[in-house]
Amino acid sequence: MKQERVNKILEVLAERGIPQLVIADPAAIFYLTGKWIQPGERMLVLYLSVKGNHKLFINELFPVYDDLGVDKVWFNDTQDAVAILSQYINKESPVGIDKNWPAHFLLRLMEQAGGSRFVNGSVILDQVRMCKDGQERALMRDASRVNDVAMGQLVRLIPGGYSEQRLAQRLTVIYDELGVGCSFAPIIAYGANATDPHHEPDASMLQEGESVILDIGCKMNGYCADMTRTVFYKYAPDFAKKIYDIVFEANKRAIDMVKPGVRFCDIDAAARNHIEAAGYGKYFTHRTGHSIGLEVHEFGDVSSVNTAQVEPGMTFSIEPGIYLPGEVGVRVEDLVLVTEHGCEILNSFEKNLTIVG
Ligand SMILES: [Mn+2]
């Protein structure tokens, strides 16, 4: 197991008086063991205990024979996996439960280990995972570096006359050739489609003067990249240029704010106040950003209601946008890594207004 990470979790468990934790999220299990196991509907649990008797409960269907530094408890499809797990649970003490553990497992465990108090244990893991360690920082940089290369190749394809769907397919080929996967289904949106922040690529073809939103992310060695660029085809109408400038400035103002001790809500406000002052506040319909790491959306967002303070090692997106229904959509997104005195921008693809074709 990744002992430093496990130790951090155990420290927080002890502080909060939760002596045991049931972890089921494959990303969290990877974070602690270095092994991705996708159990589908079957039970997979890493049980951590402040007493040190950690166990990995795993179905015989998943042939994980390497030494992960934790004892494995095997079971098969004919056995009651939760009953086996419950034998190891200390029924006198609270149990932290993974928030994403299917209810049928938890309800069964509540029957089996009735004396225990069940609490949301994910808050502990989520908080530790927010601050990336040295190895993770390097992996986050690597993923964004590859995403920059992919964005460059994708932008060069825009004049080729592809529908949104076809261009999205080309991106999967680009990622494949670069040896990475997708961290999420890419958003490629032309013209009026770009006014839907979560538009799914369709058969639309690009017209001159339209904007193109490219919101793409690769996944490399388990870690996610995420970047959005908005470019224009052939020319940018003056009105759209004005919108672009406002969003671009909002992106820069928010990034300029990022340093340890600043609250997430103040970073959100830096972007939002600029867009509001320009008169487009109601067209910036989402939060400014989200944490990212092993998963593309992790706990902790850059929003008006998150009063938590930023700490070194946190990685999150800064992605203000303006979506004017039926007219134009613009979003500019970067990932930042908080450093001791400020932040490092993980992706470096061109951000100035770009015309292609
Ligand atoms: Mn994003």
Secondary structure topology:
Elements: H1 3-16, E1 20-23, H2 26-33, E2 45-49, E3 55-59, E4 71-75, H3 81-86, E5 95-97, H4 103-112, E6 118-120, H5 122-130, H6 134-157, H7 164-177, E7 181-182, E8 187-190, E9 211-216, E10 218-220, E11 223-224, E12 227-233, H8 238-257, H9 264-277, E13 289-291, E14 298-302, E15 315-318, E16 321-324, E17 328-331, E18 334-338, E19 343-345, E20 355-356
Parallel strand pairs: 1-5, 3-4, 5-6, 12-20
Antiparallel strand pairs: 1-2, 2-3, 7-10, 8-9, 9-12, 10-11, 13-14, 15-18, 16-17, 18-19
Helix pairs in contact: 6-7, 8-9
GO molecular function, one term: hydrolase activity
Protein name: Peptidase
Enzyme class: hydrolase
Structure description:
- This protein is an alpha+beta fold.
- It has two domains: 3-129, Creatine Amidinohydrolase, Chain A, domain 1; 131-356, Creatinase/methionine aminopeptidase superfamily (Creatine Amidinohydrolase).
- The protein has helices at 3-16, 26-33, 81-86, 103-112, 122-130, 134-157, 164-177, 238-257, 264-277, and strands spanning 20-23, 45-49, 55-59, 71-75, 95-97, 118-120, 181-182, 187-190, 211-216, 218-220, 223-224, 227-233, 289-291, 298-302, 315-318, 321-324, 328-331, 334-338, 343-345, 355-356.
- The chain has a six-stranded mixed sheet. Strands 8-9-12-20 form a four-stranded mixed sheet, covered by helices on one side.
- Strand 16 and strand 17 (328-331) form a beta hairpin.
- Helix 6 packs across helix 7.
- It is elongated.
- The mean pLDDT is 96.
- Manganese (II) ion (MN) binds at residues 226, 290, 317, 319, 333.
- The site of manganese (II) ion has 5 residues, from loops.
